[in-house]
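Quick one:
INPUT:
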């Protein structure tokens, strides 16, 4: 049984922040690019007493994303059309302290994805509609698992792996200045 009565009523979720930064460059009247850096995904938990079937004490993961996205503007008789595209780079870091502290796992990986889209805007009425596709990203993390006695006869460090697939997405956004 993985239930731990010592944890009833306790909050094990760690506090976290979602830092991000962005900078935009207007290269020409019709070409602009933006660079962004953010912690796109993340979370963590710390248990005051071993929890679950793995007897976890601490688990966290962070995914940092750096990206460059550019837009090429075409002036129309009414409004503007933008063709959008860019790349992003994901850095993944996963850590687990389990088996009541006798197992310490650390995994890392990084990979690149891309995005492409189209936008239409009429600045006079603050109207903008955007459709953006974002590719999926495969993560094949590797690192180490360190086991300590009495879990093993002697301290051991073994290779460890983990994999996941972040899904592709299609996002449609509309904004207007009309209340």
């Amino acid at each position: 049984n993985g239930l731990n009565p010592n944890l009833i009523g306790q909050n094990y979720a760690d506090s976290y922040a979602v830092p991000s930064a962005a900078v935009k460059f207007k290269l020409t009247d019709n070409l602009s690019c933006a660079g962004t850096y953010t912690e796109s995904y993340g979370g963590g938990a710390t248990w005051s007493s071993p929890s679950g079937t793995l007897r976890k004490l601490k688990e966290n993961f962070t995914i940092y994303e750096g990206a460059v996205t550019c837009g090429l503007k075409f002036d129309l008789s009414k409004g503007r059309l933008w063709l959008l595209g860019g790349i992003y780079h994901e850095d993944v870091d996963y850590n687990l302290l389990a088996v009541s502290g006798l197992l310490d796992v650390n995994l890392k990986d990084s990979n690149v994805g891309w995005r492409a889209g189209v936008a239409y805007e009429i600045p006079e009425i603050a109207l903008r509609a955007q459709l953006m596709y974002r590719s999926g990203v495969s993560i094949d993390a590797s690192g180490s698992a360190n086991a300590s006695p009495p879990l093993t006869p002697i301290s051991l460090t073994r290779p460890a792996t983990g994999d996941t697939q972040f899904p592709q997405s299609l996002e449609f956004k509309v904004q207007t200045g009309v209340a």
